[in-house]
UniProtKB/TrEMBL annotation:
Pfam families in alphabetical order: Nif11 (PF07862)
Organism: Solidesulfovibrio magneticus str. Maddingley MBC34
Designated name of the protein: Nif11 domain-containing protein
Top-level lineage group: Bacteria
Domain Nif11 per the UniProt entry, residue ranges: 1-48
Length: 81
């Protein structure tokens, strides 16, 4: 399920610096999607948006919520570039 890939990317957000670097370096949507496919994490923008609320609800502490919002803002910045 590709929406689950959003959760998997979120879980790898802080630890997988190489993947983050590839996504930062990707020029445009097609290159970003290729990097996600290579990592086995492809999802659409609509699927990302659909997973926002379920991921946010799982936050149990302020720190988890801050980490979640950092992830969400990071992805929003990438997909708008």
């Amino acid at each position: 399920m590709t929406m689950d890939n959003v959760r998997r990317l979120y879980e790898r957000f802080e630890t997988d610096k190489e993947l983050r670097k590839k996504l930062y370096m990707a020029e445009g949507k097609d290159a970003r999607e290729a990097a996600l496919r290579e990592a086995g994490l492809f999802f659409t923008d609509a699927e990302f948006d659909e997973m926002i609320d379920p991921l946010h609800v799982k936050c149990q502490t302020v720190e988890e919520a801050e980490r979640f919002f950092e992830f969400r803002n990071w992805w929003d910045m990438l997909r708008r570039s």
